[in-house]
Amino acid sequence: MKPKVTMIAWNQNDNYVVTAVNNHLLKVWNSSTGQLLHDLVGHADEVFVLETHPFDCRIMLSAGHDGNIFIWDITKGTKTKHYFNMIEGQGHGAVFDCKFSPDGQHFACTDSHGHLLIFGFGCSRPYEKIPDQMFFHTDYRPLIRDSNNYVLDEQTQQAPHLMPPPFLVDVDGNPHPTKYQRLVPGRENCADEHLIPQLGYVATSDGEVVEQVIGQQTVDQDEPGLEPSILDGMIRQLQLEQDQRTGADQESAPSGPQNGEGTPRRG
Q: Which segments does the entry list as coiled coil (predicted)?
């Protein structure tokens, strides 16, 4: 097999360069002379994460698709700490990304199963204030493409980046209490009534009817036909924005704020 470099990182003071090779080795090089100093052995699959410590020039973190996370002393070429991301009943979870905290006391990783792993010194009690299961209600919603080949949310016909801040739900789609909804960027200062998601019932592909978060409940909407008014408002607003961009009928522009009140974009 011809070796190929999959990732490269400089250490904190730029004296060393670490490369990850597709033969599962990490190589430490002198950045001035190009001399190979160490081969770091431990990974069993390709490595796509190399993260340097924010102030300790000796420390480098590596993680890969084999579920292994290593802390290395690259000056000595030795392992300092090792963690294997074993998930009960599902084998190991490939690690896709890792980042150190600015103070270097913690680092966080994300894996292929949607888990956030937090490592560090001290007590874990502050992290117990949030639920174990935290998803955005839009995480697994299907996307479509419009006539211009732009991506739209299938349910609301709106561009994903223009949609209002999502709601936090558990693995079954049940919304979390309002105190957790304020953790979502864009909802920090919302009134309580704007933190209560509206639930609707949708049919799945196998015909099962499930409850799902579909939008934000607002105080200026009539109770009858609550769901259609939200979705119709979103579609009208999207069409209005598209007309304005293409320079079409400009007379529809003044109706924007009125239609906008029917949408959940009231952060």
A: none
> What does the alpha-carbon distance between residue 80 and residue 53 come to, in Å, rounded to a whole number?
13
Residues in contact with 258: Cβ distance below 8 Å, sequence separation at least 6, in sequence order: none
Q: What is the DSSP letter of 162?
A: G
Whether 56 contacts 71, CB under 8 Å: no
Rounded Cα distance between 159 and 146, Å, is: 10
Both tokens assigned to 135: 């998803």
CA-based nearest residue to 264, from 172, 198, 201, 176: 198
123-166 pLDDT tens trace? 888 777 778 788 888 887 888 998 899 999 888 888 888 888 88
CB 181, CB 167: distance < 8 Å: yes
Asked whether the whole model's pTM tops 0.90, one would answer no
Q: Which two tokens stand for residue 26?
A: 């990490």
Distance (Å, whole) CA 73 – CA 55: 13
